[in-house]
Structures
1.
Amino acid sequence: MSTSAAQSAGYEALGLRPVINACATLTRLGGSVMPPEVVDAMADAARCFVDLEELQRRVGARIAALTRNKAAYVSSGAAAGMVLATAACTVGMDQEAHARVPQLDTVKNQIIVQNAHRNGYDYAVRQVGVTVVDVGGPSGTTREELEVAFNDRTAAVFWFQGAMNVPGELPLDQVIEAADRRGIPVLVDAAAQLPPVENLWRFTQMGAALAIFSGGKDLAGPQSTGLVLGRADLIDACRFHGNPNQSIGRPMKVGKEELMGALAAVERYVGLDHAKRMRGFEETVARWVDRLAPFEGIVARRDFPNEAGQPVPWALITFADDATRDTIVDRLRSGDPSVAVAKAGEAAIHLNPMTLQPGEADAVLDRLIEEIGDDSSRR
Ligand SMILES: *Cc1c(COP(=O)(O)O)cnc(C)c1O
């Protein structure tokens, strides 16, 4: 094998093999790989005690400035940020209601979500004790359907950005306009919406009250971090519900190491040459397509954008049938090195350049060509 996956002595001691991730920034595979400056910031932070609340404030102020937002809070993942944002919009800074969470009988306790946007992550919203009010249908929502759902118990509208977006949805600018007229905040789950880097300020500049990002996806910060960006009063309320306070957020601790790691990750990310990075992705995809296209029984082409809607190219490789595809996916994962690829529709896989480390694009290609060769010799 010309190239192998990066090594970890610790994983090896546990009998675990590293995985080459050609899928996406999947939590199940570890989210992302932290660059040296993030690891160094975490190691440096681990050396001494510090006032954790003050650190959260200072880190928040720096991240807010770097991302062109009024305020920022570092949560223990985007999903935890969704819990805190929901608590901020329902309970706010109310001491009495705060003590009763998740029994939200006396406060605004309804969160509106478009039916097409409903997904596994709305569990994080419901955890606070709110009722999710579903508007519209699977193919979309009309302005009227949203308007009639508003009432005096409406705390917020949650907008999900990603694979759940459908052409018939009520667009975000219209949702913001309708909610704004009633003084109701719109919260955006943008967990996987980087790149483009501009999304760090795009949703809040459009008028969303808060936008929530995963720190452990393309930001390549600590896997267990998230960013909540936006309105200062709501960020203050997130703090109020968060660790170290005894509250719904107490089990969602963000350590000093994660706080400093998240800051280093944001500093790095806003300074990256994103255009150059994108050219690198295009080159990788073009190389994969060129090398795979000549094989008989295979169709290889560039696809765009990717599943999360990120403006990143990836390769779509279609095999003769589902069974062939499934066998190859299993053999790539169980082979040496272990390569994870995503199944795509009928008989196809996607190869994603975004999560690959230096040298791994060729390792993926080599392994795939080995498997395709085996497969055609069997036929
Ligand atoms: C990944 C993801 C989350 C959760 O993010 P974590 O940082 O893993 O908590 C939430 N919503 C969407 C749409 C996601 O893709």
Note: Residues 36-270 form a domain with the Aspartate Aminotransferase; domain 2 fold (CATH 3.40.640.10).
2.
Amino acid sequence: MADAVSNLQAVRSKIAAAELEARRDAGSVTLVAVSKTFDAAAIRPVLDADHRVFGENRVQEAAEKWPDLKAAFPDIELHLIGPLQSNKAKEAVALFDVIETVDREKIAAELAKEIGKQGRKLRLYVQVNTGSEPQKAGIEPTEAVAFVGRCRSVHGLEIEGLMCIPPAEENPGPHFALLEKLAREAGIGKLSMGMSGDYETAIAFGATSVRVGSAIFGFR
Ligand SMILES: *Cc1c(COP(=O)(O)O)cnc(C)c1O
């Protein structure tokens, strides 16, 4: 199997081609390299290849490997893409630069409190459960726009984007289209959607960032 750096270059080329195909500006899509389950030694070459935007799905795992890497590369941008428990909000606010999984009132309240206390500037996304899957995190599509409004009005949190993970067995296109529609209704410009199997499709539907793991780092 090819190494992570050549995989990264290949993914970047495919993103550039998908931007062109969708008549989007070159460089308008951010690649979030999802490094969950891979250790610092596996991540280091990707940093050395000048990539700086990474995603992790567990606060604990990220807290074990990222502080040292962030000290070595201060311009790293770390995204939390997995569910957040309220008892981890403090640690998450201290470590992450972007939290993509705001999905309920309690988490919004907890994040607002910690952001205030720590004086950090975080960028926030609301996760939408576009397939209404019972086992999946994310707010229901019918509640998403109102929830974004309450994040602002009740908690003072500016929501920058929406994020979704379509059901594994379904055609992702309708889910990406739904997320784009909800973002428009909520007056939000950023869309985090698309993973290794469908990021080019997501770009066609307006993704502004894609979260790609196994296509870069290999199988988990
Ligand atoms: C693991 C994960 C990804 C990356 O998945 P790949 O299929 O390996 O690209 C993207 N988003 C979320 C929320 C994930 O948990």
Note: Residues 4-21 form the longest helix (18 residues).
3.
Amino acid sequence: MTDAHPSVRPDRRAELAAGLARVRARIADACSAAGRDRSEVVMIAVTKTYPASDVLALASLGVTDVGENRDREAAGKAAEVTTAGAAPRWHFIGQLQRNKCRSVVRYADVVQSVDSVRLARALDAAAVAGRDRPLDVLVQVSIDGDPARGGALADSADPDTGLGPVAEVVAGADGLRLAGLMAVAPLGWEPERAFGRLAEVARGFRAVHPEAAALSAGMSGDLEAAITYGATHVRVGSALLGMRSTLR
Ligand SMILES: *Cc1c(COP(=O)(O)O)cnc(C)c1O
């Protein structure tokens, strides 16, 4: 832990510390209920819509991983945080357009939202050109198989959006390292059903890619169920930072 940056107001830091204590307790309880070791689950603080000063406060409270879903916002925030002397791991978790890859590879440590072969190839080319080490990638999978909502399709041989083809391209890319899977529970699904289905997909995926063991699942509302079904990373925004004024 380090001292908070002077831009962090003490009352906001106290608020974030309280949120962090609550979320850490939920994660610890879920781990013990599931018979899992607490060290198996990484909490990613999803800081979208919140300022760099919140990232600095969270970093000073021991948060090591942060998540963002829009390139323009994330690029500026990452630069501010770096200038202030903090170095959390940045996870890009939002829908990514191919023309944003060159920007994202400059600040992201992990991209969790690769769901097509075309995107994987664009990200690889950007990573080879713009980084000195490979970029960690999680393939985003669709739990309900609805292609409209994003996510590669587990039971599909589609050459662009099938999980098999996407994972194969990432695994073979010089600029990328296949690290695992990411998913969002579909609206209207019971979390247990959604993450149970995801666990089945992850089992099949690991049989082919045993080195890619990360499973990013679970948000503020459903992190307990995700941990029950094997999540190694939970992505927590509103429970930590407060309700966002915009729907994202
Ligand atoms: C915003 C977001 C989160 C965090 O959601 P909360 O409900 O605020 O915890 C997690 N994952 C993704 C992909 C997101 O876009």
Note: The two ends are 30 Å apart (CA to CA).
